[in-house]
Design goal:
This protein is of the alpha+beta class and 537 residues long. It has 4 domains: 6-186, 2-Layer Sandwich (Nucleotidyltransferase, domain 5); 199-240 and 336-394, ATPase, nucleotide binding domain (Nucleotidyltransferase, domain 5), CATH 3.30.420; 242-328; 419-535, Tumour Suppressor Smad4. The strands form 6 sheets. Strands 1, 2, 3, 4, 5, 9 and 10 form a 7-stranded mixed β-sheet that branches. Strands 19-18-28-27-24-25 form a 6-stranded antiparallel β-sheet, with no helix packed on it.
Protein backbone atom coordinates (compact mmCIF):
# COMPACT_ATOMS: atom_id res chain seq x y z
CA UNK A 1 0.00 0.00 0.00
CA UNK A 2 1.46 3.35 -1.03
CA UNK A 3 1.70 6.22 1.45
CA UNK A 4 -1.07 8.75 0.68
CA UNK A 5 -0.09 12.41 0.28
CA UNK A 6 -3.05 13.49 2.39
CA UNK A 7 -5.05 11.73 5.11
CA UNK A 8 -8.55 12.63 6.31
CA UNK A 9 -9.32 11.69 9.90
CA UNK A 10 -12.89 11.52 11.20
CA UNK A 11 -13.19 11.71 14.99
CA UNK A 12 -16.38 10.37 16.55
CA UNK A 13 -17.86 10.64 20.03
CA UNK A 14 -20.77 8.20 20.48
CA UNK A 15 -22.33 9.82 23.55
CA UNK A 16 -25.36 8.79 25.58
CA UNK A 17 -27.67 11.56 24.34
CA UNK A 18 -25.80 12.96 21.32
CA UNK A 19 -23.18 11.77 18.84
CA UNK A 20 -20.65 14.19 17.39
CA UNK A 21 -18.46 14.00 14.30
CA UNK A 22 -15.34 16.06 13.58
CA UNK A 23 -12.99 16.07 10.63
CA UNK A 24 -9.28 16.88 10.31
CA UNK A 25 -6.88 16.80 7.35
CA UNK A 26 -3.21 15.85 7.54
CA UNK A 27 -0.53 16.44 4.92
CA UNK A 28 2.06 13.68 4.84
CA UNK A 29 5.74 14.60 4.81
CA UNK A 30 7.43 11.22 4.72
CA UNK A 31 6.36 9.52 7.95
CA UNK A 32 5.41 12.83 9.54
CA UNK A 33 1.74 13.86 9.52
CA UNK A 34 1.20 17.62 9.63
CA UNK A 35 -2.22 18.94 10.64
CA UNK A 36 -3.33 21.40 7.96
CA UNK A 37 -5.89 23.25 10.11
CA UNK A 38 -7.86 22.99 13.30
CA UNK A 39 -10.33 20.05 13.37
CA UNK A 40 -13.84 21.15 12.43
CA UNK A 41 -17.36 19.72 12.86
CA UNK A 42 -18.45 17.52 9.96
CA UNK A 43 -22.26 17.68 10.09
CA UNK A 44 -24.35 15.35 7.98
CA UNK A 45 -27.91 15.76 6.73
CA UNK A 46 -29.16 13.84 9.77
CA UNK A 47 -27.41 16.24 12.18
CA UNK A 48 -29.08 19.14 13.97
CA UNK A 49 -27.14 21.90 15.75
CA UNK A 50 -23.74 20.22 15.15
CA UNK A 51 -24.87 16.98 16.78
CA UNK A 52 -26.81 13.83 16.04
CA UNK A 53 -29.42 12.92 18.63
CA UNK A 54 -28.59 9.36 19.72
CA UNK A 55 -32.09 8.13 19.09
CA UNK A 56 -33.50 5.67 16.58
CA UNK A 57 -36.79 4.17 15.48
CA UNK A 58 -36.78 0.44 14.79
CA UNK A 59 -38.62 -0.92 11.79
CA UNK A 60 -41.94 -2.72 12.50
CA UNK A 61 -40.14 -6.08 12.59
CA UNK A 62 -37.77 -4.72 15.25
CA UNK A 63 -34.63 -5.97 13.51
CA UNK A 64 -33.50 -2.87 11.63
CA UNK A 65 -33.35 0.91 11.54
CA UNK A 66 -36.26 2.94 10.14
CA UNK A 67 -35.05 6.45 11.03
CA UNK A 68 -32.53 8.17 13.29
CA UNK A 69 -31.51 11.51 14.76
CA UNK A 70 -33.82 14.49 14.38
CA UNK A 71 -36.52 12.63 12.39
CA UNK A 72 -36.59 9.98 15.13
CA UNK A 73 -36.72 12.68 17.79
CA UNK A 74 -39.80 14.17 16.15
CA UNK A 75 -41.59 10.83 16.53
CA UNK A 76 -41.59 11.06 20.33
CA UNK A 77 -45.05 12.60 20.26
CA UNK A 78 -46.39 9.93 17.88
CA UNK A 79 -48.00 7.32 20.09
CA UNK A 80 -48.22 4.85 17.19
CA UNK A 81 -44.45 4.83 16.69
CA UNK A 82 -43.14 5.65 20.15
CA UNK A 83 -42.96 2.00 21.20
CA UNK A 84 -40.29 1.40 18.53
CA UNK A 85 -38.09 4.31 19.69
CA UNK A 86 -34.79 3.52 21.40
CA UNK A 87 -32.68 6.18 23.11
CA UNK A 88 -30.23 6.61 25.98
CA UNK A 89 -28.90 3.09 25.46
CA UNK A 90 -25.17 3.75 25.98
CA UNK A 91 -25.46 3.57 29.82
CA UNK A 92 -26.58 -0.06 29.44
CA UNK A 93 -23.37 -1.15 27.70
CA UNK A 94 -21.51 -3.28 30.24
CA UNK A 95 -24.04 -2.61 33.00
CA UNK A 96 -24.40 -6.33 33.69
CA UNK A 97 -20.88 -6.21 35.15
CA UNK A 98 -21.97 -3.69 37.81
CA UNK A 99 -22.81 -5.15 41.19
CA UNK A 100 -25.62 -2.63 41.71
CA UNK A 101 -26.60 -1.12 38.34
CA UNK A 102 -28.82 1.95 38.48
CA UNK A 103 -32.29 2.00 36.93
CA UNK A 104 -31.16 3.84 33.78
CA UNK A 105 -28.47 1.18 33.24
CA UNK A 106 -31.07 -1.59 33.13
CA UNK A 107 -33.43 -0.21 30.49
CA UNK A 108 -31.86 -2.47 27.84
CA UNK A 109 -29.63 -5.52 27.96
CA UNK A 110 -25.94 -5.22 27.11
CA UNK A 111 -26.55 -6.99 23.80
CA UNK A 112 -29.47 -4.71 22.90
CA UNK A 113 -27.48 -1.57 23.69
CA UNK A 114 -24.62 -2.75 21.48
CA UNK A 115 -27.04 -3.64 18.71
CA UNK A 116 -28.66 -0.20 18.74
CA UNK A 117 -25.17 1.31 18.66
CA UNK A 118 -24.37 -0.82 15.62
CA UNK A 119 -27.56 0.18 13.80
CA UNK A 120 -26.93 3.88 14.35
CA UNK A 121 -23.26 3.64 13.44
CA UNK A 122 -23.86 1.64 10.26
CA UNK A 123 -26.27 4.32 9.02
CA UNK A 124 -23.85 7.06 10.01
CA UNK A 125 -20.87 5.43 8.31
CA UNK A 126 -22.87 5.12 5.09
CA UNK A 127 -23.77 8.80 5.30
CA UNK A 128 -20.11 9.72 5.79
CA UNK A 129 -19.20 7.66 2.74
CA UNK A 130 -21.87 9.31 0.56
CA UNK A 131 -21.69 12.88 1.83
CA UNK A 132 -18.04 13.28 2.85
CA UNK A 133 -16.29 10.73 0.64
CA UNK A 134 -18.06 11.36 -2.69
CA UNK A 135 -19.82 7.99 -2.43
CA UNK A 136 -16.50 6.23 -3.03
CA UNK A 137 -15.08 3.27 -1.15
CA UNK A 138 -12.97 3.97 1.93
CA UNK A 139 -9.25 3.50 1.24
CA UNK A 140 -5.84 4.25 2.80
CA UNK A 141 -6.55 8.00 2.71
CA UNK A 142 -9.21 7.86 5.44
CA UNK A 143 -8.82 7.11 9.15
CA UNK A 144 -11.30 7.06 12.03
CA UNK A 145 -10.83 7.71 15.74
CA UNK A 146 -13.46 6.74 18.34
CA UNK A 147 -13.43 7.89 21.96
CA UNK A 148 -14.71 5.76 24.83
CA UNK A 149 -15.17 6.05 28.63
CA UNK A 150 -11.87 5.30 30.33
CA UNK A 151 -13.37 2.68 32.67
CA UNK A 152 -14.32 0.51 29.67
CA UNK A 153 -10.63 -0.31 29.30
CA UNK A 154 -9.50 -0.51 32.90
CA UNK A 155 -12.44 -2.29 34.55
CA UNK A 156 -13.41 -5.96 34.15
CA UNK A 157 -10.29 -6.82 32.12
CA UNK A 158 -11.43 -4.54 29.30
CA UNK A 159 -14.28 -6.75 28.08
CA UNK A 160 -16.60 -3.75 27.55
CA UNK A 161 -14.06 -2.02 25.33
CA UNK A 162 -13.50 -5.28 23.42
CA UNK A 163 -17.21 -5.52 22.66
CA UNK A 164 -17.36 -1.87 21.58
CA UNK A 165 -14.31 -2.29 19.32
CA UNK A 166 -15.86 -5.34 17.67
CA UNK A 167 -19.15 -3.51 17.08
CA UNK A 168 -17.36 -0.52 15.53
CA UNK A 169 -15.07 -2.57 13.31
CA UNK A 170 -18.01 -4.58 12.04
CA UNK A 171 -19.49 -1.38 10.57
CA UNK A 172 -16.48 -0.83 8.31
CA UNK A 173 -14.93 -2.82 5.46
CA UNK A 174 -12.26 -5.18 6.72
CA UNK A 175 -9.48 -3.60 4.67
CA UNK A 176 -9.51 -0.39 6.74
CA UNK A 177 -9.76 -1.92 10.22
CA UNK A 178 -6.14 -1.01 10.90
CA UNK A 179 -7.07 2.62 10.17
CA UNK A 180 -9.58 2.73 13.04
CA UNK A 181 -8.21 3.86 16.41
CA UNK A 182 -9.77 4.05 19.86
CA UNK A 183 -8.97 6.76 22.38
CA UNK A 184 -9.99 7.14 26.06
CA UNK A 185 -12.21 10.19 26.50
CA UNK A 186 -9.83 11.88 28.99
CA UNK A 187 -7.02 11.46 26.46
CA UNK A 188 -9.11 13.25 23.83
CA UNK A 189 -9.88 16.05 26.29
CA UNK A 190 -6.20 16.46 27.16
CA UNK A 191 -5.09 16.65 23.53
CA UNK A 192 -7.72 19.30 22.81
CA UNK A 193 -6.99 21.34 25.92
CA UNK A 194 -3.27 21.21 25.16
CA UNK A 195 -3.88 22.63 21.69
CA UNK A 196 -5.98 25.43 23.19
CA UNK A 197 -3.25 26.24 25.74
CA UNK A 198 -5.49 25.53 28.72
CA UNK A 199 -3.02 23.11 30.34
CA UNK A 200 0.01 25.38 30.20
CA UNK A 201 1.37 27.67 32.93
CA UNK A 202 -0.56 25.91 35.66
CA UNK A 203 0.77 25.14 39.12
CA UNK A 204 -0.46 22.36 41.34
CA UNK A 205 -2.64 19.50 40.22
CA UNK A 206 -4.89 19.76 37.20
CA UNK A 207 -8.26 18.01 37.36
CA UNK A 208 -10.24 17.35 34.20
CA UNK A 209 -13.89 16.72 35.03
CA UNK A 210 -15.77 15.19 32.09
CA UNK A 211 -19.52 15.17 32.74
CA UNK A 212 -21.34 13.26 30.01
CA UNK A 213 -24.90 12.21 29.49
CA UNK A 214 -24.50 9.03 31.55
CA UNK A 215 -21.10 9.06 33.27
CA UNK A 216 -18.65 11.41 34.93
CA UNK A 217 -14.93 10.67 34.53
CA UNK A 218 -12.29 12.63 36.44
CA UNK A 219 -8.55 12.52 35.72
CA UNK A 220 -5.90 14.31 37.79
CA UNK A 221 -2.25 14.95 37.04
CA UNK A 222 0.65 17.40 36.97
CA UNK A 223 1.30 19.17 33.67
CA UNK A 224 4.86 18.76 32.39
CA UNK A 225 5.70 22.27 31.19
CA UNK A 226 8.20 21.01 28.60
CA UNK A 227 6.14 18.29 26.93
CA UNK A 228 2.63 19.36 27.83
CA UNK A 229 1.88 15.83 28.97
CA UNK A 230 -0.09 15.13 32.11
CA UNK A 231 1.81 13.10 34.68
CA UNK A 232 -0.82 10.77 36.05
CA UNK A 233 -1.99 10.99 39.65
CA UNK A 234 -5.33 9.22 39.54
CA UNK A 235 -8.71 8.81 37.92
CA UNK A 236 -12.23 8.26 39.18
CA UNK A 237 -15.66 7.77 37.62
CA UNK A 238 -19.29 7.06 38.42
CA UNK A 239 -22.46 6.40 36.34
CA UNK A 240 -23.65 9.96 36.93
CA UNK A 241 -24.58 12.27 34.04
CA UNK A 242 -26.96 14.87 32.70
CA UNK A 243 -29.48 12.22 31.68
CA UNK A 244 -30.35 11.58 35.33
CA UNK A 245 -31.76 15.09 35.60
CA UNK A 246 -33.93 14.47 32.54
CA UNK A 247 -35.45 11.39 34.18
CA UNK A 248 -36.26 13.21 37.42
CA UNK A 249 -37.71 16.23 35.63
CA UNK A 250 -39.80 13.88 33.47
CA UNK A 251 -41.48 12.71 36.67
CA UNK A 252 -42.12 16.34 37.60
CA UNK A 253 -43.77 16.96 34.22
CA UNK A 254 -45.93 13.84 34.53
CA UNK A 255 -47.14 15.08 37.93
CA UNK A 256 -47.93 18.50 36.43
CA UNK A 257 -49.91 16.79 33.65
CA UNK A 258 -51.69 14.63 36.28
CA UNK A 259 -50.76 11.40 34.53
CA UNK A 260 -51.34 8.44 36.83
CA UNK A 261 -48.55 6.00 37.53
CA UNK A 262 -50.68 3.14 36.20
CA UNK A 263 -51.10 4.94 32.86
CA UNK A 264 -47.33 5.25 32.50
CA UNK A 265 -46.87 1.60 33.42
CA UNK A 266 -49.25 0.67 30.58
CA UNK A 267 -47.35 2.97 28.18
CA UNK A 268 -43.69 3.01 29.34
CA UNK A 269 -42.57 4.55 26.04
CA UNK A 270 -44.34 7.77 27.09
CA UNK A 271 -41.48 8.39 29.52
CA UNK A 272 -39.14 8.71 26.54
CA UNK A 273 -41.17 11.69 25.31
CA UNK A 274 -41.34 13.18 28.80
CA UNK A 275 -37.55 12.95 29.16
CA UNK A 276 -37.14 14.81 25.87
CA UNK A 277 -39.45 17.61 27.04
CA UNK A 278 -37.56 17.74 30.34
CA UNK A 279 -34.17 17.99 28.61
CA UNK A 280 -35.24 21.03 26.60
CA UNK A 281 -36.62 22.85 29.64
CA UNK A 282 -33.51 22.01 31.67
CA UNK A 283 -31.14 23.28 28.98
CA UNK A 284 -33.11 26.51 28.56
CA UNK A 285 -33.13 27.19 32.30
CA UNK A 286 -29.42 26.47 32.60
CA UNK A 287 -28.48 28.76 29.70
CA UNK A 288 -30.33 31.67 31.33
CA UNK A 289 -28.62 31.19 34.70
CA UNK A 290 -25.08 30.70 33.32
CA UNK A 291 -25.32 33.57 30.86
CA UNK A 292 -27.30 36.13 32.86
CA UNK A 293 -26.81 34.92 36.43
CA UNK A 294 -30.55 34.90 37.05
CA UNK A 295 -33.85 33.93 35.45
CA UNK A 296 -36.09 36.76 34.29
CA UNK A 297 -38.57 34.56 32.44
CA UNK A 298 -38.54 30.88 33.46
CA UNK A 299 -38.71 28.59 30.43
CA UNK A 300 -42.12 27.18 29.64
CA UNK A 301 -43.52 24.87 27.03
CA UNK A 302 -46.98 23.66 26.08
CA UNK A 303 -46.71 19.90 26.28
CA UNK A 304 -49.17 17.56 24.60
CA UNK A 305 -48.83 13.85 25.26
CA UNK A 306 -51.09 11.22 23.71
CA UNK A 307 -50.91 7.81 25.36
CA UNK A 308 -51.39 4.57 23.45
CA UNK A 309 -54.81 4.10 25.07
CA UNK A 310 -56.01 7.38 23.50
CA UNK A 311 -55.78 9.56 26.63
CA UNK A 312 -54.61 13.09 25.85
CA UNK A 313 -52.74 15.27 28.34
CA UNK A 314 -51.99 18.91 27.57
CA UNK A 315 -50.71 21.75 29.75
CA UNK A 316 -48.33 24.71 29.79
CA UNK A 317 -45.38 23.50 31.88
CA UNK A 318 -43.09 26.03 33.52
CA UNK A 319 -39.70 25.19 35.07
CA UNK A 320 -38.23 27.71 37.49
CA UNK A 321 -35.27 27.37 39.86
CA UNK A 322 -37.44 26.42 42.83
CA UNK A 323 -39.09 23.54 40.97
CA UNK A 324 -35.75 22.42 39.57
CA UNK A 325 -34.04 22.33 42.97
CA UNK A 326 -36.99 20.63 44.66
CA UNK A 327 -37.00 17.91 42.00
CA UNK A 328 -33.24 17.35 41.64
CA UNK A 329 -31.86 18.18 45.09
CA UNK A 330 -30.79 14.57 45.64
CA UNK A 331 -28.79 14.64 42.40
CA UNK A 332 -26.92 17.75 43.49
CA UNK A 333 -26.01 15.97 46.72
CA UNK A 334 -24.91 12.93 44.69
CA UNK A 335 -22.59 15.09 42.56
CA UNK A 336 -21.12 16.75 45.64
CA UNK A 337 -20.44 13.28 47.05
CA UNK A 338 -18.90 12.21 43.71
CA UNK A 339 -16.38 15.08 43.93
CA UNK A 340 -15.58 14.18 47.55
CA UNK A 341 -15.13 10.52 46.58
CA UNK A 342 -12.81 11.43 43.70
CA UNK A 343 -10.52 13.44 45.98
CA UNK A 344 -10.50 10.65 48.55
CA UNK A 345 -9.78 7.88 46.03
CA UNK A 346 -7.00 9.91 44.37
CA UNK A 347 -5.65 10.91 47.81
CA UNK A 348 -5.90 14.63 47.04
CA UNK A 349 -7.02 17.64 49.05
CA UNK A 350 -8.95 20.43 47.42
CA UNK A 351 -6.07 22.76 48.34
CA UNK A 352 -3.80 20.62 46.09
CA UNK A 353 -5.84 21.45 43.01
CA UNK A 354 -4.44 24.26 40.88
CA UNK A 355 -6.99 24.09 38.10
CA UNK A 356 -10.26 22.31 37.37
CA UNK A 357 -11.26 22.10 33.71
CA UNK A 358 -14.90 21.18 33.11
CA UNK A 359 -15.76 19.45 29.83
CA UNK A 360 -18.49 17.18 28.44
CA UNK A 361 -22.06 17.41 27.23
CA UNK A 362 -23.46 17.53 30.77
CA UNK A 363 -21.01 20.15 32.03
CA UNK A 364 -23.16 23.18 31.13
CA UNK A 365 -25.76 22.40 33.78
CA UNK A 366 -25.69 25.33 36.20
CA UNK A 367 -25.80 23.17 39.33
CA UNK A 368 -22.72 21.23 38.15
CA UNK A 369 -20.80 24.46 37.54
CA UNK A 370 -21.94 26.01 40.83
CA UNK A 371 -21.03 22.91 42.84
CA UNK A 372 -17.47 22.96 41.50
CA UNK A 373 -17.20 26.73 42.07
CA UNK A 374 -18.31 26.16 45.64
CA UNK A 375 -15.53 23.61 46.20
CA UNK A 376 -12.66 25.05 44.14
CA UNK A 377 -13.60 28.71 43.63
CA UNK A 378 -12.02 30.64 40.76
CA UNK A 379 -9.81 27.67 39.86
CA UNK A 380 -12.72 26.23 37.82
CA UNK A 381 -12.63 26.78 34.05
CA UNK A 382 -15.49 25.84 31.73
CA UNK A 383 -13.92 25.01 28.38
CA UNK A 384 -15.24 26.67 25.23
CA UNK A 385 -17.74 24.34 23.55
CA UNK A 386 -17.18 21.82 26.37
CA UNK A 387 -19.42 19.21 24.75
CA UNK A 388 -17.08 19.11 21.73
CA UNK A 389 -13.71 19.06 23.52
CA UNK A 390 -13.35 15.28 23.49
CA UNK A 391 -14.31 14.74 19.84
CA UNK A 392 -12.07 17.67 18.85
CA UNK A 393 -9.18 15.91 20.61
CA UNK A 394 -9.98 12.65 18.83
CA UNK A 395 -8.85 14.33 15.60
CA UNK A 396 -5.47 15.36 17.04
CA UNK A 397 -3.89 11.99 17.79
CA UNK A 398 -2.63 11.39 14.22
CA UNK A 399 -0.12 14.26 14.22
CA UNK A 400 3.03 12.24 14.99
CA UNK A 401 4.63 9.16 13.37
CA UNK A 402 3.32 5.83 14.58
CA UNK A 403 6.68 4.92 16.11
CA UNK A 404 6.60 8.06 18.29
CA UNK A 405 2.98 7.93 19.35
CA UNK A 406 2.32 8.00 23.07
CA UNK A 407 -0.56 8.73 25.34
CA UNK A 408 -0.62 12.29 26.68
CA UNK A 409 -1.68 10.74 29.96
CA UNK A 410 -0.09 7.51 31.08
CA UNK A 411 -2.39 5.40 33.21
CA UNK A 412 -0.86 2.84 35.57
CA UNK A 413 -1.17 -0.90 35.06
CA UNK A 414 -4.17 -2.57 36.61
CA UNK A 415 -3.85 -3.64 40.22
CA UNK A 416 -3.39 -7.33 40.95
CA UNK A 417 -1.89 -7.86 37.49
CA UNK A 418 -0.09 -10.89 38.90
CA UNK A 419 -3.44 -12.64 39.24
CA UNK A 420 -4.17 -12.52 35.49
CA UNK A 421 -3.21 -16.16 34.91
CA UNK A 422 -5.38 -17.25 37.82
CA UNK A 423 -8.33 -15.18 36.53
CA UNK A 424 -7.91 -16.55 33.01
CA UNK A 425 -7.80 -20.12 34.29
CA UNK A 426 -10.94 -19.55 36.35
CA UNK A 427 -12.75 -18.10 33.32
CA UNK A 428 -11.85 -21.16 31.26
CA UNK A 429 -13.44 -23.40 33.86
CA UNK A 430 -16.74 -21.54 33.93
CA UNK A 431 -17.34 -20.57 30.29
CA UNK A 432 -19.15 -22.69 27.72
CA UNK A 433 -17.63 -24.20 24.60
CA UNK A 434 -18.60 -24.96 21.02
CA UNK A 435 -17.28 -28.44 20.26
CA UNK A 436 -17.07 -30.51 17.06
CA UNK A 437 -14.93 -33.44 15.94
CA UNK A 438 -12.53 -31.06 14.17
CA UNK A 439 -12.39 -28.04 16.49
CA UNK A 440 -13.56 -26.48 19.74
CA UNK A 441 -13.97 -22.85 20.74
CA UNK A 442 -14.34 -21.30 24.22
CA UNK A 443 -17.11 -18.72 24.37
CA UNK A 444 -16.47 -15.44 26.13
CA UNK A 445 -17.59 -15.38 29.72
CA UNK A 446 -18.78 -11.81 29.24
CA UNK A 447 -19.79 -9.99 26.09
CA UNK A 448 -19.96 -11.17 22.50
CA UNK A 449 -18.16 -13.99 20.67
CA UNK A 450 -18.16 -13.43 16.89
CA UNK A 451 -17.86 -16.26 14.37
CA UNK A 452 -17.53 -16.24 10.60
CA UNK A 453 -15.18 -16.60 7.67
CA UNK A 454 -13.41 -13.23 8.14
CA UNK A 455 -10.19 -13.34 10.14
CA UNK A 456 -11.33 -10.38 12.30
CA UNK A 457 -13.92 -12.59 14.04
CA UNK A 458 -13.11 -14.04 17.44
CA UNK A 459 -13.10 -17.44 15.72
CA UNK A 460 -12.64 -17.97 12.02
CA UNK A 461 -14.77 -20.74 10.52
CA UNK A 462 -13.75 -22.57 7.36
CA UNK A 463 -16.85 -23.53 5.43
CA UNK A 464 -18.11 -22.93 1.91
CA UNK A 465 -21.52 -21.87 3.26
CA UNK A 466 -20.20 -19.65 6.05
CA UNK A 467 -20.53 -15.86 5.66
CA UNK A 468 -17.73 -13.43 6.50
CA UNK A 469 -19.58 -12.19 9.61
CA UNK A 470 -21.98 -15.07 10.13
CA UNK A 471 -23.18 -15.10 13.72
CA UNK A 472 -22.61 -14.06 17.33
CA UNK A 473 -23.02 -15.64 20.74
CA UNK A 474 -23.88 -13.14 23.46
CA UNK A 475 -23.31 -13.82 27.14
CA UNK A 476 -25.19 -11.71 29.68
CA UNK A 477 -26.47 -12.39 33.21
CA UNK A 478 -29.50 -14.03 31.58
CA UNK A 479 -27.29 -16.67 29.91
CA UNK A 480 -25.92 -17.39 26.43
CA UNK A 481 -27.81 -16.26 23.32
CA UNK A 482 -27.26 -17.11 19.65
CA UNK A 483 -27.69 -14.41 16.98
CA UNK A 484 -27.64 -14.72 13.19
CA UNK A 485 -26.06 -11.62 11.60
CA UNK A 486 -27.98 -11.79 8.33
CA UNK A 487 -25.89 -14.62 6.91
CA UNK A 488 -26.53 -15.92 3.39
CA UNK A 489 -27.02 -19.56 4.33
CA UNK A 490 -28.48 -19.12 7.79
CA UNK A 491 -27.71 -19.97 11.41
CA UNK A 492 -29.50 -22.93 12.98
CA UNK A 493 -30.26 -23.88 16.58
CA UNK A 494 -31.25 -27.54 16.87
CA UNK A 495 -31.88 -27.44 13.08
CA UNK A 496 -34.32 -24.53 13.39
CA UNK A 497 -33.33 -21.59 11.21
CA UNK A 498 -33.03 -18.39 13.21
CA UNK A 499 -34.51 -14.99 12.39
CA UNK A 500 -31.66 -12.55 11.74
CA UNK A 501 -30.67 -10.11 14.51
CA UNK A 502 -32.85 -11.84 17.12
CA UNK A 503 -31.55 -13.28 20.40
CA UNK A 504 -32.18 -17.02 20.84
CA UNK A 505 -31.49 -18.66 24.18
CA UNK A 506 -28.97 -21.54 24.24
CA UNK A 507 -28.61 -24.54 26.55
CA UNK A 508 -25.89 -27.10 27.09
CA UNK A 509 -26.33 -29.93 24.57
CA UNK A 510 -27.88 -27.72 21.87
CA UNK A 511 -26.71 -28.21 18.28
CA UNK A 512 -25.56 -25.00 16.62
CA UNK A 513 -24.88 -24.71 12.88
CA UNK A 514 -23.36 -21.83 10.92
CA UNK A 515 -24.04 -22.61 7.27
CA UNK A 516 -22.39 -26.01 6.88
CA UNK A 517 -20.27 -25.92 10.09
CA UNK A 518 -21.90 -27.58 13.11
CA UNK A 519 -21.08 -27.64 16.84
CA UNK A 520 -22.51 -28.90 20.10
CA UNK A 521 -22.76 -26.56 23.11
CA UNK A 522 -20.73 -27.95 26.01
CA UNK A 523 -19.82 -26.90 29.55
CA UNK A 524 -16.25 -28.04 28.98
CA UNK A 525 -13.76 -28.62 26.21
CA UNK A 526 -13.49 -31.97 24.48
CA UNK A 527 -10.65 -34.43 24.87
CA UNK A 528 -8.89 -33.46 21.63
CA UNK A 529 -5.60 -31.59 21.77
CA UNK A 530 -6.09 -27.84 21.31
CA UNK A 531 -3.93 -25.48 19.34
CA UNK A 532 -1.69 -23.21 21.38
CA UNK A 533 -3.54 -20.09 20.20
CA UNK A 534 -6.86 -21.51 21.34
CA UNK A 535 -5.38 -22.56 24.67
CA UNK A 536 -4.19 -19.01 25.31
CA UNK A 537 -7.49 -17.39 24.37
Amino acid sequence: MTQPEQVTLFGMDCGATNWRLYRATYQMNGDQAVLTGDPQPAPLTSFGERKLAAILVLNPAGDGLEMMGEPALQQLENEAVRGRIREYFKPCIGSYLSEEPLAHQQRYTHAEALDYTRMLLEALVEQIRREKWRAGEFDERVHFSFVYPVHWKYDNNGVILDDFVNIVQGCFPEQIHEQIEFLPEPEGAILSLQRQGMLSNTSGTTMIVDVGGSTTDIVAGIVDQETGRLKYIGHYGEPFGGGLYDSELAKYISDELHISGSALVDDPSAMIALRSFARRLKESLSRQILQAGSVSHPPQRTITLVLQNGQIFRKLIRLDEAAFFETTRHLQLAFEKLIDNSLRVMDLKKEDIGQVVLVGGGSQLFTIVNTLLGVFGSRVLLADNPEEIVVHGACLQYAVPVVDKHESIILPPQEHAGDEAKVAAEEKKSRWWLVSEQMEFPLKKAGITRLGRARTNDFQLEGVRVSRFHGEIVHSPEGYFLVDKGSTNGTYLNEEKLTAEKLHSMRVGDKVRFGDVQFVVSEKAGSMERKESEDEY
